[in-house]
Amino acid sequence: MKDRYRVELSLNIWCESDEEARQVAEDIRNEQRERFDNRCEIIKICDSPFGRIKERDIRLYEWRAWYE
Predict the structure, then answer these.
(1) Which parts of 1-68 fold into alpha helices (H)?
(2) Which strand (E) or helix (H) includes residue 46?
(3) What is the longest distance spanned by two Cα atoms in the chain?
(4) Distance CA 62, CA 31 (A)
(5) Contact in structure between 29 and 22 (CB atoms under 8 Å)
(6) pLDDT, tens digit, for every residue of 8-38?
(7) In 3D, which of 14, 17, 11, 15 has the Cα closest to residue 44?
(8) Are 47 and 55 in contact, with CB atoms under 8 Å apart?
(9) How many CA atoms lie within 13 A of 50 on its CB side?
(10) What counts of helices (H) and strands (E) characterise the chain?
């Protein structure tokens, strides 16, 4: 029987906007789920400018009223 392991990864992506960064992250997550059935999930997305220490958290999902 194989043992199960949990892996936490961090990677950099280059995008023009917060929305594009969200989409790229979701595409990576979806590909992982389809290829490996591994319950891949996005924990956090940050704007992380090169050469700076301070990062800005980006909301994963925007709240929208169901009637819009």
Answers:
(1) 18-36
(2) strand 45-47
(3) 50
(4) 22
(5) no
(6) 889 999 999 999 999 999 999 999 999 998 8
(7) 11
(8) yes
(9) 4
(10) 1, 2
Query: Locate tokens 């595409």: which residue?
Result: 27
Domain edges within the chain:
8-68
DSSP secondary structure letters along 18-30: HHHHHHHHHHHHH
Q: How far is CA 57 from CA 15, 18, 45, 48, 49, in A?
A: 15, 10, 6, 9, 12
Reference 47, options 10, 9, 6, 17; nearest CA is 17
Q: How far apart are CA 17 and CA 51, in angstroms?
A: 19
- pLDDT at residue 50 in the model: 87
Residues 19 and 60: their CA atoms lie apart, in Å, by: 9
